[in-house]
Amino acid sequence: MRAVRDCLWFTLLFKRTPFMSETHPITARSSLRWALLILVVIAIAALLWWLWPAPNKEAPQRPGGRPGFGAFGGAVPVRVAKVEQGEFEVFNKALGSVTPLNTVNLRSRVAGELVELRFEEGQRVKKGDLLAVIDPRPYKVALQQAEGTLQQNRAQLKNAQVDFERYRGLYADDSIAKQTLDTQEALVSQYQGTLAANQAAVNEARLNLEFTQIRAPIDGRVGLRQLDVGNLVAANDTTPLVVITQTQPMSISFTLPEGDLLPVLTRYRQGEKLVVQIWDRGEKVMFGEGVLESIDNQIDATTGTLRLKARFDNEQELLIPNQFVNVRLRVETLRDAVLIPTAALQFGSRGTFAYVVGEDSKVQLRLLKAGPSNGETTVVLEGLEVGERVVMEGTDRLRDGAEVEVVGSRRMAEEAAENPVLGGGEAAEREAQ
């Protein structure tokens, strides 16, 4: 604001000079232009002065450094982690689909009126449980009719057999002709055939009567009913009464790219039990563990993947058919692996690197060779030794040889708030290149 006041004073001074009188128009115009130019320059200077950040007197400063920029002066606060040694489980990750071992569309095998439903939607049922009843009265009548016909044929057969035995005695006494005996024998055979057909009719009627009671063919859980009591049901109707799904155990189908198959196939064919972890879509909740059960016999030429199937007990019935899940197939367990937090890994054009904190509290940019990772922890194959300290937080302010101060995460937040202008990230990347 002081600069603006000085500018206004300077303008008034020019207005009072004799060179801006009406007797010198050319000189007045030139002086006015100079006044406007100076006014613009002063305004720009005032704006820059207003926007320029005030120096932070409390920020550490090294000789020749500028106060207020922690990345360029003093020790840089960082959070570190020790390089550890231990076991590391290697997993192949994939997206899987839950598939029931058995699914049954429950339909009636006979036609009639649906008179009773004996299940609740979502109920768990056992094999043989009575679930629905079709009106049995017509089938009882049909059975009684078939049994009556059978009884009649039995009597006819018995009478024909008695006559045949009598004719055999008469024929032996030469009292009747051979043709009469043969005719009676044929009649007995005819009644025997009729009796067999009638017995089959009775069996069919009895079976149809049994089919009026619809029972669960498998253990599982029923879904929502598709028909209500009172509807007329056709035999083998396209609309099922209800769907029964076997939920214990369940199958998990997933695919792996052909590049990941060699260790899996090797261990599977050696008879090893390969563990499969089942996670939710967000990979936050693990439903449990299963085992690899089967592998397809050919690779999909379109996707370059092979289909695999795992078996999961699903004792708590956490998995639902057709549900999408994340699958982690445990391939191997690395012993005595060198482990660091994944957050400590940095990337440049020369490869992967990490900042190692030395005994003198200075960092060294160390190129390394990274191995498998589970997201939080990464195996280091080359470049680090067990017990060394690597920087996890604060890497954006570091360069090779920078002095650091090991602090906690809360201190890191306070330091970031006090020093919003940071300047080491690009330099560090150039060093890695």
UniProtKB/TrEMBL annotation:
Residues of the Multidrug resistance protein MdtA-like C-terminal permuted SH3 domain: 336-397
InterPro entries named in the record: MdtA-like_b-barrel, MdtA-like_BSH, MdtA-like_C, MdtA-like_HH, RND_pump_MFP
GO-annotated molecular function: efflux transmembrane transporter activity
Keyword Acetylation assigned: no
Annotated Multidrug resistance protein MdtA-like alpha-helical hairpin domain residues: 143-212
Residue ranges occupied by any Multidrug resistance protein MdtA-like beta-barrel domain in the UniProt entry: 249-332
Signal sequence, renumbered to the chain: none
Gene Ontology annotations for the cellular component aspect, listed alphabetically: efflux pump complex; plasma membrane
Keywords in alphabetical order: Cell inner membrane, Cell membrane, Coiled coil, Membrane, Transmembrane, Transmembrane helix, Transport
Domain of life of the source: Bacteria
Region of interest (Disordered), ranges: 410-433
KW Transport (keyword) present: yes
Recorded topology in the membrane: Lipid-anchor
Main localisation: membrane
Residue ranges constituting the Multidrug resistance protein MdtA-like barrel-sandwich hybrid domain according to the UniProt record: 102-245
Transmembrane segments: 34-52
Subcellular location: Cell inner membrane; Membrane
Stored Pfam families: Beta-barrel_RND, BSH_RND, HH_MFP_RND, RND-MFP_C
Family designation: Belongs to the membrane fusion protein (MFP) (TC 8.A.1) family.
Protein name: HlyD family secretion protein
